[in-house]
Design goal:
Pfam families: YjbR (PF04237)
InterPro entries: YjbR-like_sf, YjbR/MT2646/Rv2570-like
Helix content: 25-40%
Number of strands: 6
Strand content: 15-25%
Oligomer: single chain
Structural class: alpha+beta
Protein name: MmcQ/YjbR family DNA-binding protein
Shape: globular
Order of helices and strands: HEEEEHEEHH
Number of domains: 1
CATH architecture: Alpha-Beta Complex
Organism: Paracoccus denitrificans (strain Pd 1222)
CATH topology: Aspartate Aminotransferase, domain 1
Number of helices: 4
Length: 113
């Protein structure tokens, strides 16, 4: 899985917006102003949100992911060369989690799922 494919998956999410908030070539994907996926400037991983700290720990313990640096413990870092279906699933799930946690007023302004 390449960084380009990760960006394609992220861009396909309704209302997703790309930014590089820290400069230097980061790929930070947001919905309603909140991050759902980020790849570092020279990163080999994409960081995504999980349902819980327990789910993140499970993914880390089973070798699917690593601890995501600088983010809450419910976030994990998946290698860019992960199985494409696993990576796509985790990105879409992160998107839905973040979108679902947005205020209802913000959600009402977003494109339909």
């Amino acid at each position: 899985m390449s960084r380009e494919l990760v960006n394609e998956i992220c861009a396909a999410q309704p209302g997703a917006e790309w930014s590089d908030p820290w400069g230097g070539g980061h790929d930070c994907w947001k919905i309603g102003g909140k991050t759902f996926a980020v790849t570092g400037a020279v990163g080999t991983h994409v960081s995504v949100k999980t349902d819980s700290v327990e789910m993140a720990e499970f993914l880390i313990e089973t070798g699917v992911a690593e601890r995501a640096a600088y983010l809450h413990r419910s976030w994990v870092a998946l290698p860019l060369d992960s199985a494409p279906d696993e990576l796509a699933h985790r990105i879409r799930h992160s998107y839905r989690l973040v979108r679902g946690a947005l205020p209802k007023k913000v959600q009402a302004t977003l494109p339909s799922l």
